[in-house]
Amino acid sequence: MQEVGVARRGAERKSLSELGPRYKWVALSNTTLGLLIATINSSIVLIALPDIFKGIGVNPLDAGNTSYLLWMMMGFLVVTAVLVVTFGRLGDMYGRARMYNLGFLIFTISSIALAVTWMSGDAAAIWLIAWRIVQGIGGAFLMANSSAILTDAFPANQRGLALGVNGIAAIAGSFLGLVIGGVLAPIHWHWVFLVSVPFGLIGTVWAYLKLHDTGVRVKAKMDWGGNITFAVGLIAVLVAITYGIQPYGNSSMGWTNPWVIGALVGGVLVLAWFVAIERRSPNPLFNLSLFKIRTFTWGNVANLMASLGRGGLQFILIIWLQGIWLPQHGYSFEETPLWAGIYMVPMTIGFLIAAPISGVLSDRIGARGLATTGMIITAGTFFALTILPVNFDYVVFAILLVINGIGMGMFSSPNRAAVMSSLPSNARGAGAGMTATFQNAAMVLSIGIFFSLIIAGLSTSLPGALTSGLTAHGVPAADANEIAQLPAVAVLFAAFLGYNPVQQLLGPALSQLPPDQASFLTGRSFFPSLITEPFADGLHVAFWFAIVACVIAAVGSWLAGRGVPVGESVGEELAATASESGTIPVDLVDMSRADSSVTAGRSVSGG
Q1: Beta-ladder partners of 248
Q2: How far apart are CA 41 and CA 183, in angstroms?
Q3: DSSP class per residue in 421-466
Q4: Which residues cross the membrane (predicted)?
Q5: What is the rounded distance in angstroms from the CA atom of residue 377 to the CA atom of residue 410?
Q6: pLDDT at residue 198, as a whole number
Q7: Mean per-residue pLDDT, 399-422
Q8: Residue 79 in this model has a pLDDT that exceeds 80
Q9: Alpha-carbon distance 561 to 64, whole Å?
């Protein structure tokens, strides 16, 4: 395939010297805006879901509507995980700025389509999910190419700062989305999607006019076999995880569902086929030879495990706050979604403090010590959360959230800078896509794991607690037993959505109870006290999983920089690897040497 020439201004190929010293800051500000609105939209619906479903007239807790709820939450994440590596490869081939601009346009159009939803019922739910998936496509273009654009635009001694600021937007946006969704959704649920439109329009025009391709383009054919097998395999695995947390038959979860098992096994087999294709492809989607770079390999292992550890944390903390702590401290169930987002702000503050500082420090002292220490700190906060009472003192909780955010910030910026700086210039788009794929897939996997652990903990003791608690307050034994047999996921989702769970579960039976008993059962204290102990069992198991994941991430961060001398350029590292193994393609080694003017003297020891 011939390299495509681009006539329009927004993707014109220029050198950095032609663009001037200010261009790098233009690239940083625009890509930061792109990642910020993309990640805000990945989480904004979490808090807004009750108002969205109420607005379209759908009860997400009805058995037939659970899939709507799950796909509204996870559809965006699934599609970005699947497509981001392909779009990074397209950026390498056709221009990173060009693909990034396309992503901004798609994202803006989908935001408009979401904001003007006029339907109701199932049609509205399907419309919203479909356009959320399209929005995820736009987000994947933005995520796949932003890091590569910055790595091209900034000199080696400033990449930690640039990628650190960009990384702040990527992670802080997911926390800010909770607060923004909580504020806007009660006013009108359309505003949750409308808020992105002006920023999308500004960003699209700005990127078209100001961003240019400064990196090396690769003449190559698209690896269709790799693209298809990767997409089919990863979609099968992620969809199986999504449906694995739904009830199946008499089971509280769907992990015994033959369809889920078949999708998991089949997905893994297709991904194994994908690896075999990539080993033989002259233009692979996943450039497996990049894993010969120690910093890239271990940095991605660390990033994958860190994402597994923290990915489901948002959901667990939201359920903890909304279902137990906030009602016990005077908040109505209708208010809990907004306040859950507000009470999690300390984590964002900790991250915003640590990420830019660690990014600057990693440019000077390397990323190894910072990233490793950050993961150890994060693991320590998870351990502290395991010994914190379910009905905690908020000051202690807030301090732990700040420290947790600091730990994640110390890891995120140095890890991202080290991984991206370890790549030759002609592979940065593909490398960024591979890294984003690991991270986004880990987020979906983490949600499935955390939800499964919590549901497993609830399923063992919640039925007995429900039966005894309800019958003690006048609910007929038959009704209490029937409610106790409902899947634990229904209780979990009710708490997550800010509904009054007992009111949802009892339904018409409430009218048959004495007014004082009905009032007590649907009050702020009964349900939280009922699920405190069952929830704590699952919570502790989930946090221990996060601890193990963070410790592995710390080990990966340490190994990423082991044995790489300070001052060795990427070209030298690749050439050394090629001479030892003979497995690095010649064009990669040649291109890394051609990039020596940029990479000379760069330290990758901090990987």
Answers
A1: 251
A2: 14
A3: HTS-GGGHHHHHHHHHHHHHHHHHHHHHHHHHHHHHHHHHHHHHHH
A4: 25-48, 68-87, 99-119, 125-149, 161-183, 189-208, 228-246, 258-277, 298-326, 338-357, 369-388, 394-411, 432-458, 541-560
A5: 9
A6: 92
A7: 88
A8: yes
A9: 50
Identify the CA nearest to 564 among candidates 287, 301, 299.
299
Both tokens of 365, joined, read 């002292």
Can you point out the beta strands (E) in 115-164? none
Q: Which tokens sit at 520?
A: 């007590």
- Three-class SS string for 28-79? HHHHHHHHHHHHHHHHHHHHHHHHHHHHHCCCCCCHHHHHHHHHHHHHHHHH
CB atoms within 10 A of CB 459: 19
- For residue 129, the surrounding DSSP H or E stretch is helix 121-153
* Per-residue model confidence as pLDDT tens digits over 463-517: 888 888 888 888 888 878 877 777 777 777 777 776 776 777 777 777 788 888 8
Q: Do 605 and 565 form a contact (C-beta atoms < 8 A)?
A: yes
Alpha carbons 556 and 174: distance in angstroms, whole number: 25
Within 10 angstroms of residue 484's Cβ, the number of other Cβ atoms is 18
Q: List the structure tokens of 332.
A: 């109505």
Token pair recorded at residue 101: 């601009």
Q: Is the pTM of this model over 0.85?
A: no
Supply 403's token pair. Answer: 């420290």
CB 173 within 8 A of CB 166: no
Distances (CA, A) of 582 to 231, 286, 589: 30, 18, 11
Residues 6+ positions from 274 with CB-CB distance below 8 Å: 226, 229, 230, 233, 286
Token pair belonging to 272? 């194994």
Confidence bin at 419 (pLDDT 50/70/90)? confident
The structure tokens listed for 435 are 């890294």
